[in-house]
Amino acid sequence: MTTNFISGPDGIELARTLRGDAPPYLLMVHGWCCNSQFWAAQAEALAGDHTTVTVDLAGHGESRGTRQRWDLDRFADDVTAAARDLDGPIVLAGHSMGGAVAMLAAAKIGARVRGVVLGDTFCFDWGHIAESDQALYLAAIREDLPAMVANLVDGVAPANPNPERQKWLKAQMARPDPKVAAPAFSSLLNFDADAALAQLPEALPIHAINSPNAHPEPKRRHAGRITESVVPDTGHFLQIEKAEEFSSLLREQVGRMLAD
């Protein structure tokens, strides 16, 4: 395992960890206010099959530096930078906001990307949220980010959640600066999945590994383009809550994408 800092856009130093040193690559993108540790179980579990790559997006985790724009497109540029020296086939996997970022990054990276896996990305119907609700979310972030993420983590938890896991999730998600968290969430609230999909080749496989609570409207809207698996009895952080089951599904999908 090798962790180092690579040059990202706007002078950002992105913290990137590789497990392995040869293609193909599985590059995993974390969600809003999260970090690469949210993919730790999968990065270890699949390292025997592929070189696994995790990266802390700008403003998250151990990455260093600041910039003016904290939006999905700029985060996709971070992922593109993380993939710059990966010489070979890549599958992108993104949890929550990371799935939206992965879709945008796939268009930027181009032919090296063999597929995209979305981990419960459509927990909300992004791009279709009332402006009044958006204003409430953003006000809560600016006023008290730790309280906002604590409520969010509890709201998307599975039945009978593990208390220690809940505590860890809340602590990790309270780390970013609200000046990063608010514009990033605003960008996510307005994510246009149709436009993102239109930028990708029709033959590029996209698969969602969802919790049972994934929003029904995006599933209906994209049923002809995005295939789906469901991990039963999970909440939004399914790759942590049921790591072995999620890793097994991820391994299966990555294998199929690389075989095509």
Automatic annotation (TrEMBL):
A Pfam match: Abhydrolase_6
Annotated keywords: Hydrolase
SUPFAM superfamilies hit by this protein: alpha/beta-Hydrolases (SSF53474)
Molecular function as annotated in GO: hydrolase activity
All copies of domain AB hydrolase-1, residue ranges: 26-247
Gene3D superfamilies xrefs: alpha/beta hydrolase (3.40.50.1820)
Cellular component, GO annotation: membrane
Name of the protein: Alpha/beta hydrolase
